């Protein structure tokens, strides 16, 4: 057994050098195998330094070890002491992973010893989480053709943070249409459509959240909390008592205290998480005895995070000391109530086996250091810098030389489109044996002369005594990848409307800034219709039909803004000013376009291979219509 395999068999810190990014996924897989052979619980708790590393490592482990269970626990996507809540998708991922861990430790049964890697970030591991008891007690399994009390069911949804909307599109939402209930529980790939008849569950179907069309049937479905803060009489009373003990009696000037006391969700209430629970736990409590591995520069990232938490807390305290309307309603909890301090982190990790990865070799003065054997990959920058150099000839030479030495060479690209282009370029330059693979085990099954090509978000390649990974970026040069979320306009409108809280400022395209006062049903021409009620300066009210909700948008300016006067000229004046500026910009763009149209350009007919190579250097991810 090598030193790298011994490090997680006894408590204490160990530094592993020679672990470049990408190679760390292979090391994690090897450590899991070592634990299984040694009779230990095969569980690794890895702390990534940031969100991008969490995403990459999750994808890399799925490539290198397709059968390995990997749970990701992201951090809230908002800053400490923010006025907004974390996004529902982030909360859903966190709760799904936490509930799985709570059910696993301890767990009786045949799956207790199945290998597991849990990946989180520095920001997430330093934050306290709801207790495991909540993640066990607030999980409900519904079965087809079984009794289901509607009072109990809707009480569960309300208590656990599900948001009622018109159309279900994201995790944590539900909609009611007579006996049909659509809901999207955390941990489910698709939302479910429940067919209720009285207190009986007659059917469970899943559907596409975009088209809303049914795609299949299920015999059962598991419901998990949609929020880390539950709202029931017990938690509301606990919050009220804790809030008054810390900040004194609340009142009408404190929207948070008033909203929670009324059993209503409030934007940003998660930042008072300790007041909703009798006690909070840490991620270490969810993973008893698990060995810990850390990214390179994790400790530096922790120091930065601690400084950020302290700075935001002091800014809130300073704002409250200066007075003003914005300061009254925000009363921050002390940092140690929600976050781990440096000393507590050291205490929690000192009793466990831990290993810090580094791409650099361990120094002689590091008694607990080990060289894992990984090195940087093959960089072709020196070849690209030479005008007449044969870039792909150099790539071919590296592949052949390493193959002759018994080292498996693997090529990686960042997307399906770039993978196809790279394969074409290699073929055009007479580099044979390239075969598309989906996983590392599949790559190992190729004959020695085969060159696996995979989609893997690896920026730079790496090497070890038996492997050489060459990334697309190593060959063609740096790319500036920007991850992007697919946005659907209709979905964005619904999601934004459902996220509004009574009292939020919104902007009407014709009438300006108003205050959202909720949904109201009015009878129009002897038929009920749903309206969004807005109030303006002076107490004027405006009812907007939900069918035309696209005329509304969330106000994104300062919290201290005042609503406009309904029918006043201030909003129209601001719109006219903006239109004038837009018109001037448009005139300039039209002038430049006209000048370009009048000029003759030189027509170029590039060779197909050269053009493909040019396309491969495109520094951004392709859109769907470009693939």
Kindly list the characteristics that best describe this protein.
about 625 residues, Rossmann fold, Penicillin-binding protein 1b fold, 4 domains, seven-stranded parallel sheet, seven-stranded mixed sheet, 27 strands, about 35% helix
Care to describe what's here?
The protein has 627 residues and is an alpha/beta fold. It has four domains: 3-127 and 267-357, Rossmann fold; 140-223, 2-Layer Sandwich (Penicillin-binding protein 1b fold), CATH 3.30.2060.10; 377-499 and 573-627, Rossmann fold (3-Layer(aba) Sandwich); 500-568, Thrombin, subunit H (Beta Barrel). Strands 3-4-2-14-15-1-16 form a seven-stranded parallel β-sheet. Strands 6, 7, 8, 9, 10, 11 and 12 form a seven-stranded mixed β-sheet that branches. The chain has a five-stranded antiparallel β-sheet with strand order 26-25-24-23-27, with helices on one face. β23 and β24 (512-524) form a beta hairpin. The relative contact order is 0.11. Mean pLDDT is 85; it is low at 107-111 and 480-488.
């Amino acid at each position: 057994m090598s030193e790298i395999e011994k490090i997680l068999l006894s408590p204490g810190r160990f530094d592993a050098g020679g672990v470049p990014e990408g190679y760390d996924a292979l090391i994690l897989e090897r450590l899991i195998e070592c634990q299984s052979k040694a009779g230990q619980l095969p569980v690794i708790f890895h702390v990534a330094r940031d969100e991008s590393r969490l995403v990459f490592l999750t994808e890399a482990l799925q490539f290198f070890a397709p059968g390995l269970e990997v749970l990701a626990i992201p951090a809230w996507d908002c800053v400490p002491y923010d006025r907004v809540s974390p996004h529902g998708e982030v909360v859903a991922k966190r709760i799904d992973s936490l509930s799985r861990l709570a059910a696993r430790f301890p767990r009786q049964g045949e799956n207790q010893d199945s290998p597991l890697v849990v990946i989180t970030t520095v920001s997430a591991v330093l934050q306290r989480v709801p207790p495991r008891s909540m993640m066990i007690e607030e999980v409900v399994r519904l079965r087809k053709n079984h009794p289901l009390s509607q009072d109990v069911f809707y009480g569960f949804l309300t208590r656990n943070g599900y948001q009622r909307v018109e159309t279900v599109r994201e995790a944590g939402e539900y909609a009611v249409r007579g006996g049909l209930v659509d809901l999207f529980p955390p941990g489910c790939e698709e939302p479910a459509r429940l067919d209720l008849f009285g207190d009986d569950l007659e059917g469970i179907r899943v559907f596409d959240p975009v088209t809303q069309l049914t795609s299949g049937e299920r015999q059962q479905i598991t419901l998990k909390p949609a929020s880390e803060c539950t709202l029931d009489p017990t938690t509301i009373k606990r919050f009220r008592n804790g809030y008054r003990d810390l900040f004194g009696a609340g009142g009408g000037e404190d929207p948070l205290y008033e909203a929670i006391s009324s059993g209503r969700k409030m934007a940003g209430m998660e930042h008072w998480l300790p007041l909703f629970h009798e006690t909070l736990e840490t991620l270490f409590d969810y993973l008893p005895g698990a060995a810990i591995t850390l990214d390179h520069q994790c400790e530096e990232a922790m120091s930065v995070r601690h400084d950020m938490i302290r700075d935001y807390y002091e800014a809130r305290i300073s704002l409250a000391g200066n007075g003003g309307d914005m300061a009254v309603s925000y009363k921050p909890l002390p940092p140690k109530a929600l976050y781990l301090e440096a000393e507590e982190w050291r205490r929690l990790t000192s009793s466990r086996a831990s290993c810090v990865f580094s791409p650099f070799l361990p120094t002689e003065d590091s008694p607990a250091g080990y060289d894992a054997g990984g090195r940087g990959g093959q960089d072709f920058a020196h070849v690209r810098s030479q005008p007449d150099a044969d870039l792909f000839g150099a790539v071919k030479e590296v592949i052949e030389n390493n193959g002759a030495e018994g080292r498996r060479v693997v090529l990686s690209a960042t997307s399906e489109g770039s993978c196809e282009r790279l394969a074409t370029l290699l073929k055009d330059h007479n580099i044979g044996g390239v075969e598309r693979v989906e996983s590392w085990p599949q790559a190992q099954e190729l004959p020695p002369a085969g060159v696996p090509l995979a989609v893997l978000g690896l920026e730079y390649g790496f090497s070890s005594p038996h492997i050489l990974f060459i990334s697309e970026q190593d060959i063609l040069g740096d790319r500036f990848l920007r991850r992007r979320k697919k946005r659907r306009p209709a979905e964005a409108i619904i999601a934004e409307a459902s996220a509004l809280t009574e009292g939020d400022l919104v902007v009407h395209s014709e009438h300006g800034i108003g205050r959202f006062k909720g949904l109201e049903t009015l009878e129009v021409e002897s038929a009920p219709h749903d309206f969004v009620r807005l109030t303006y300066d002076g107490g004027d009210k405006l009812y907007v039909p939900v069918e035309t909700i696209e005329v509304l948008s969330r106000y994104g300016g300062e919290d201290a803004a005042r609503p406009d006067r309904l029918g006043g000229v201030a909003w129209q004046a601001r719109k006219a000013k903006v239109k004038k500026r837009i018109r001037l910009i448009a005139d300039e763009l039209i002038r430049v376009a006209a000048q370009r149209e009048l000029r003759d350009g030189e027509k170029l007919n590039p060779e197909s291979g050269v053009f493909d190579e040019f396309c491969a250097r495109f520094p951004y991810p392709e859109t769907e219509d470009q693939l």
